[in-house]
């Protein structure tokens, strides 16, 4: 479970970087984040 959470966190950090560099839109960020959360079984995001 720990490695799965680390992989999830790394993916979220990477898409956040893309957003900060304006390489994706806010809408795209939320779409990708939602899909990633579903893939990893994350049901709540306390950072939003």
Please tag this protein with its features.
about 50 residues, mainly alpha, 2 helices, about 70% helix
Strand content: under 5%
If helices are DSSP runs of H or I spanning 4 or more residues, what is the number of helices?
Answer: 2
Low-confidence stretches: none
Class by alpha and beta content? mainly alpha
Radius of gyration: 11 Å
Give a short account of the largest sheet.
none
Distance between the termini: 22 Å
Overall mean confidence score, pLDDT? 93
SSE pattern, N- to C-terminal: HH
Helix content: over 70%
Oligomer category: single chain
Question: What this model shows, in words?
Answer:
The chain has 2 helices and no strands. The protein has 48 residues and is mainly α.
Offer a quick outline of the entry.
The protein has 48 residues and is mainly alpha-helical. Helices cover 71% and strands 0% of the residues.
Structural topology:
Blueprint: H1 2-20, H2 26-40
């Amino acid at each position: 479970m720990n490695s799965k959470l680390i992989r999830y966190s790394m993916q979220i950090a990477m898409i956040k970087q893309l957003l900060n560099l304006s390489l994706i839109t806010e809408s795209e960020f939320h779409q990708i984040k939602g899909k990633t959360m579903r893939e990893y079984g994350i049901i709540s995001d306390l950072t939003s």
